[in-house]
Amino acid sequence: MLSDDLHPDLTEPGKGQIVILNGTSSSGKSSIAVELQAILDHPYHHFAIDRFRSMGAGKAMSDAEFAIYFQRTILGFHRAVAGFASVGNNVIVDYVLGERWRLADCRQVFAGFDLVFVGVHCPLEELERRERERGNRGIGRAATQFPIVHAEMSYDIEVDTGTASPRECAEAIKSWLIDHEVGSSTRRRTCN
């Protein structure tokens, strides 16, 4: 029911959980996110970097201008996720942590949140097949991201869409989340 007044439970907002699905383009992150939304016990919003970037201005830019614009977009994306979670919304982030500065900024911006890092793996041959089949991705994007996207990462859980369906991956993630629920003896870490 809608009201003119803010719900009393929202006058002191809590922090929602942030689940980051990190993997290359075409690795199945979006499909896993959709499945997670369907099976998790609480509502989760799906933030996808591709959708966020598509909101940008279609202005022609030099390479130097684009580099700054791109980094500002990524930094804004992190802060939008944190802002959403800061009022108690749970968020699934569909993302490619390709450069060190992205991970460093995530760790800073998401400090204090219940943060779960999920590594989404897929063999390169399968990624390349998916790129060709989909037709809406730049051919070679996954191959460029493949050697760097999981470098220097420490995951809470890892899944492989080359051997498991998006639903099976989502079920494994859900099981991990239940086993590591906040307050349990195997409590998830927060990003500090």
Assembly state:
single chain
SSE string, helices as H and strands as E? EHEHHEHEHHEH
Q: Between the first and last Cα atoms, what is the distance in angstroms?
A: 38 Å
CATH topology: Rossmann fold
- The CATH superfamily label reads P-loop containing nucleotide triphosphate hydrolases
Average pLDDT figure: 86
What does the model show?
The protein is an alpha/beta fold and 192 residues long. It has one domain: Rossmann fold, CATH 3.40.50. The chain contains 7 helices and 5 strands. It has helices at 29-39, 49-53, 63-86, 100-109, 124-134, 141-145, 166-179, and strands at residues 17-22, 44-48, 90-95, 114-121, 157-160. It has a 5-stranded parallel β-sheet, sandwiched between helices. Helix 1 (29-39) packs across helix 7 (166-179). The protein is globular. The protein starts with 16 loop residues before the first strand and ends in a 13-residue tail after the last helix. The model has no long low-confidence stretch (mean pLDDT 86).
Q: What's the short story on this structure?
A:
The protein is an alpha/beta fold and 192 residues long.
